[in-house]
Amino acid sequence: MPSVELKKISLVDLFLWTIRRNEKDVVNMYDSLSGIMKISTGGDMLNFGFWNENYDSPLSAQKNMCTVFARMAKLECGQRIIDVGSGFTTPASIWHEQYDPLEVTCVDINFEHLRNAKQNRTQRAKNMRVNATARILPFCDQSVDRVVALESAQHFKPLENFISESYRILKKGGILAMAIPVVQKPTSVVDLGVLAMTWSSEHYEAAFVESVIRQQGFEIISSEKVGSSVYEPLTEYYVKNRKHLKSKIAEQYPFYVERILYNSLQKMKNVSKKKIIDYMLIACKK
């Protein structure tokens, strides 16, 4: 059997993705690292999952996150939804199963993710894929029922642009919903440790997210922090299954990538327990 060429990830690139965090860096990061999530979960969703005793494997926890998020966003049959930062569009497929008929437009800055997304025949006529930035959403004023960002808004910079664009395109009474990793207060390298280098997104404070939402004219109708059901069980799953996952990752990535991942997860669990970081589910109405 021919050997598989390992994906090369430069530690310099990793450093620059973390420091600059511009849109090109986000695309390059996901192009390089989304394969680790696929290996670790066996699927192509890019969220951490919402874990409990009934959802204790990556795919089941990720699907549960999609379900919990949809309920918070008050998705209903017949709505027009814009999914911003849609990744490989799998959440949209789940929502189709739960709320059909549904019109979902999947927006992502990463063209390759949209191009490679799986989509069955019945969904093809209902889903559109738009390669665009969250800062400028290419939709008419007051034309959609929901704007959703499932674990993607942490990359949107400045966040205010995405919030204001969401307000513009939503109909009166429409809802913006986000699932977003946050910090509880300003953090430093001392607080985050290795995460200061590997958490390649904006470290938005929870209070800041809420203030921006209100400043743009939205009414917050639901806000919940669920980090203990996200970070900690995810880390525990990885540690329990590390031997197997480590060997699978080593088939595609250099050994040091898994080592960094493992140390990052351990630190993520630690700072989650200390409430330094959290995970916010928030919905607001226009």
Automatic annotation (TrEMBL):
Query: What residue stretches are annotated with the Methyltransferase type domain?
Result: 83-177
CDD domains in the record: AdoMet_MTases
Q: Which domain of life is it from?
A: Archaea
Q: Which SUPFAM superfamilies match?
A: S-adenosyl-L-methionine-dependent methyltransferases
Q: Which InterPro entries match?
A: Methyltransf_11 (IPR013216), SAM-dependent_MTases_sf (IPR029063)
Q: Which GO terms describe its molecular function?
A: S-adenosylmethionine-dependent methyltransferase activity
| Functional pathway | Phospholipid metabolism; Lipid metabolism
- Which keywords are on file for this protein? Methyltransferase, Transferase
Q: Name one GO biological process term.
A: methylation
Q: What is this protein called?
A: Methyltransferase type 11
Q: Which organism is it from?
A: Candidatus Nitrosotenuis uzonensis
Q: Which taxonomic lineage is given here?
A: Archaea, Nitrososphaerota, Candidatus Nitrosotenuis
